Amino acid sequence: MRKPTPAAEEPRSRDADRSQQAILLAARDEFAQHGLAGARVDRIAERAGLNKRLIYYYFSSKDELFLAVLESAYADIRAAEQQLHLTDMPPAQAIRRLTEFTWNYYLEHPEFLTLLNSENLEHGRHLAQSQRARKTNLPLIETLADILERGRRDGVFRGGIDAVQLYVSIAGMAYFYLNNQHTLSAIFGRDLMTPKALHERLSHMSDVILGYVLRN
Fold first, then answer.
1. CA–CA distance from 24 to each of 37, 57, 100, 203 (Å)?
2. Residue 80 to residues 22, 75, 140: CA-CA distances in angstroms?
3. pTM for the full model?
4. What digits encode the pLDDT tens for the residues 103-114?
5. String of b and e for 147-169 (b: at least 16 CB within 10 Å)?
6. How high is the mean pLDDT of the chain?
7. Helix 91-108 and helix 62-82: axis angle, to 10°?
């Protein structure tokens, strides 16, 4: 029996890539809507327009598929951050731009937040076994550390700022507000998702973060 030629293998490879991408997109929506526990592979297959057996061919279990979705979600946000070219900006501008980007990305991609919620309910057990996730996220911290060091050398930033802690603060201020928008709006008696409120929140976040890093 003759082996398939490279020309014949290429369409198969493209078909496989398309199938896996369709599965990941369908799974992302299913996990974001129902969480890991409530997600159903049957519905993912229906969303993707593919046979359920094909899902198990590429991803051996629902947990493996969930991890692949998480890894893809992190890859997407990190790729978008790289397009900012933060290292080409003055340090203070770079920090403000990262803060603005994080806020807007969370607003535009609420599924990212719900996926993180699901993984936190699982105590991070999927990401804990993912070398890919760590490699994907490391460049951001390295870039942020470089920005902080440039700012310190230029006399603009104070020293001793931990890049991980700073990013957790940037992400956390956006994440908590958006993730708890309904309860916060209810207990404070104001709609925190109006355009005015969202603008005020971003302005507040930027002022807090820059107020922390800038030298007095």
1. 17, 13, 28, 35
2. 20, 9, 11
3. 0.90
4. 999 999 999 999
5. bbebbbeeeebeeebebeebbee
6. 94
7. 140
